Amino acid sequence: MRVACVVWSVVVATVVLCGCGSHAAAAVVEGRATVARVIDGDTIVVHVGGRDEHVRLLGIDTPETHKPGTPVECFGPEAAVHLRDLLPDGTTVRLERDTVTRDRYGRLLAYVFRDDGTFVDLAMVRDGYAGPLVIEPNVAHRGEIERAAAAAKAARTGLWGACGGFHVAGGG
């Protein structure tokens, strides 16, 4: 609970210090949202604050399926399907911010939790559909995500067994 308070303080400070908006802007980057659709294994669209926002799940990376000029990577389509299974359209989620609000593509950066408490980013790693991706300074859940990845890799779960790891071309 104390961590959530610290994270919320960071959100408010970030919004105020960068002049990015008002209290309504803070609600957009942290709080409840509804899943509109899954784009791929680590990107979703949610309806929040009266509009649709692309959200990049923090702390994880999945094989590519839509990156221009690159082939579909091994287990990329499976990762997208698994995220759709975890987050069907209409699912209510809680978005938890870390330090940086958006990536270079304008997507919100957030950890995603279902109403039943499932930490979706962690589930993707634990189930072998994603690996850890640390982009400093967003490290709030780094330890638990890295431990889940090590366990999935050791057990050869998901992409670790099917592909030998990340970013292998020719998957499907």
Q: What report would you give on this structure?
A:
There is one protein chain. This protein is α+β, with helices and mostly antiparallel strands and 172 residues long. It has a single domain, classed as OB fold (Dihydrolipoamide Acetyltransferase, E2P) (Beta Barrel). The strands form two sheets. A five-stranded mixed beta barrel has the order 1-2-3-6-5. A hairpin with a 2-residue loop joins strand 2 and strand 3. The protein starts with a helix and ends in a 10-residue tail after the last helix. The N terminus is likely disordered.
Quickly describe the structure.
The protein has 172 residues and is α+β, with helices and mostly antiparallel strands.
What shape does the CA trace take? globular
Secondary-structure element order, N to C = HHEEEEHEEHEHH
Number of structural units classed as domains: 1
Mean pLDDT: 83
Main sheet: which strands, in order across? 1-2-3-6-5
Features:
single chain; 172 residues; alpha+beta; OB fold (Dihydrolipoamide Acetyltransferase, E2P); five-stranded mixed barrel; two-stranded antiparallel sheet; 6 helices; disordered N terminus
